[in-house]
Amino acid sequence: MHSGNTTFPPHGRGPRDGGQAREWLDLSREGREEGAHKPKKGRAPLTGQSRLLLTVHGLFAAANALSGTFVNVYLWKARHDFALIGWFTLVHHVMMALTFWTAGKWVKEHNKMNCLRAGVAVAAVFYTLVLWFGERSADYFLVLGIVQGVSSGFFWLAFNVVYFEVTGPNNRDRFNGWAGLLGSGAGMLAPWISGLLIVRLRAETGYRLIFSISVAVFVLGVIVSFFLKKRKSLGMYDWRLPWTCLKQDGAWRTVGLALAAQGMREGVFGFMIALLVYVHTGNEAKLGNFSLITSAVALLSFMAAGRLLKPKHRRIAMLVGAVMLVLMIVPFFWKVNFFTLLVFGIGVGIFFPLYGIPMTSTVFDLIGGDPESAKRREEYIVLRELALNAGRIVGTALFIAAVSLTRSPAAMNWLLLAIGSSPLAAWYFMRKVHAV
Q1: Phi and psi dihedrals of 373, rounded to 5?
Q2: CB neighbour list of residue 70: distance below 8 Å, 6 or more residues apart
Q3: CB-count burial class (<10 Å; 0-12, 13-18, 19+) for 160
Q4: Which of 44, 107, 198, 202 has the fewest C-beta atoms under 10 angstroms from its C-beta?
Q5: Is the pLDDT confidence value at 27 over 50?
Q6: Among residues of the chain, what percentage have pLDDT more than 90?
Q7: Which residues have C-beta within 8 Å of that of residue 102, sequence separation ≥ 6?
Q8: How far apart are CA 157 and CA 82, in angstroms?
Q9: What are the E-state strand segments in 322-431?
Q10: C-alpha span between 288 and 188 (Å, rounded)
Q11: Structural domain that includes position 317
Q12: Which spans in 80-171 are helix H?
């Protein structure tokens, strides 16, 4: 663990004494065999295991994009209550945070690949429950939020640990670019197909079909995950490290604040924009078209950023991305309709990679910055996710409070601007990391 000041270690710093060196060699041998941590000049290619992990990620993203975009619409159509959608999202984030913290022991000491598979399998259970509850799903938002939170916690904890192990500083931006590209590709085609199916079939039939397809894709994701190598478990899980680290380690406390700021925006914008598109159009096909256009833009942007972005450019890239994400909200003060929402979506598609890729890559480089951090990678990844979810919970709670007090469009716009400005705070805290 880093010392209690705010000095960040250089990327890739190695151990200084022999005992630490042996520990570092043991810890990173598997990654070096895959090419993840092998020192190279320039940018390293992706390994076979990293490509397989991207495949699992792509299937998970496709299944969620196929139905996840429309789950909130499905709940909205049943109740027409923004607060209910907020509570569903809040329960999801709280449960995801608890799952990250408790499942850390499973990933650290036992089989992290089974945790990854469990996340995909529980996601299939979630959509099975939506199928089972049908039009009564809004009455069971608490159960659905819990199940979806457990699924997300299992999957993203294991995914992030394996991601750290199969990538290194020389290919991490490339991996993140491909992950964003696959996510954008899924977000481009899947909701568009779903929207067409829902509109052309009787609405309930269309929803049941896309939820069923999602279950099948999740099952395929579980099958593909068995081609990933079982990864060695090292050490004992330290339940208290995330909390101790935030109190005593100035560097991680700073990063934790940046991650919480990042999470505030994600907690609200992750569901609100798609829901606003449906509310203002009343048509699932138009929501699908919105996702098609904005995700196509994001796909190209992620492709370019993944290829061109270098660690030395992260600080300025993240600042440009953060500023533009905030400016994209301004058109809402003119009028909220499909056009202004589309302008927002296209702008976010262009500039989010400049903000998101440096944020993710830098935090994981910090985890791998010295042998002690890398040895406790599971705990640091749990810390990362707890900080993100703390921000998501705060942002969602503010949203619930606001929509419970007023339905004023002006108040909603100011709320979105306030929460949507959090990327600037994230950049402010992360600027010292990029400066190293």
Answers
A1: -65, -45
A2: 191, 194, 195, 198, 207, 210, 284, 287
A3: buried
A4: 202
A5: no
A6: 29
A7: none
A8: 29
A9: none
A10: 8
A11: 48-223+247-435
A12: 82-109, 112-133, 141-166
Amino acid at site 114: N
**Amino acid (one-letter) located at 43:** R
Least confident of 33-42, 201-210, 246-255, 271-280: 33-42
Backbone Cα Rg of the chain: 21
Amino acid identity of residue 252, one-letter, is: W
Q: Dihedral of CA 30/172/259/406: which sign?
A: negative
Contact 70, 198 (CB under 8 A): yes
Choose among 234, 244, 258: nearest CA to 366: 258
**173 in a structural domain:** yes
CATH code at 307?
Answer: 1.20.1250.20
Within a domain: 234: no
Q: How far is CA 335 from CA 259, 340, 343, 344, 412, in A?
A: 31, 7, 12, 12, 12
Q: Cβ-count burial of 279 within 10 angstroms (0-12 exposed, 13-18 middle, 19+ buried)?
A: middle
The span from the CA of 339 to the CA of 343, in Å, is 6
- Tabulate helix, strand, coil % of the chain (nearest 5): 85, 0, 15
Cβ atoms of residues 179 and 298 within 8 Å: no
Residue with tokens 């500083």: 169
Q: Which two tokens stand for residue 167?
A: 């990538």
Q: Is residue 327 part of a domain?
A: yes
Asked if residue 23 belongs to a domain, the reply is no
pLDDT on residue 89: 94
Q: What angle do CA 86, 296, 275 make, to 5 degrees?
A: 20
**What is the phi/psi pair of residue 52, to 5°?**
-65, -40
Task: In whole angstroms, give the CA distance from residue 67 to residue 209.
Answer: 10
Contact at 8 Å (CB) between 309 and 358?
yes
Query: Per the structure block, which two tokens stand in for 321?
Result: 């991305």
Contact 8, 140 (CB under 8 A): no
Interacting residues of 364 by C-beta distance below 8 A, sequence separation 6+ = 160, 163, 164, 167, 172
Which pTM was predicted? 0.80
pLDDT digits (tens, 9 = 90+) for 386-436: 999 999 999 999 999 999 998 888 888 999 999 999 999 999 998 876 544
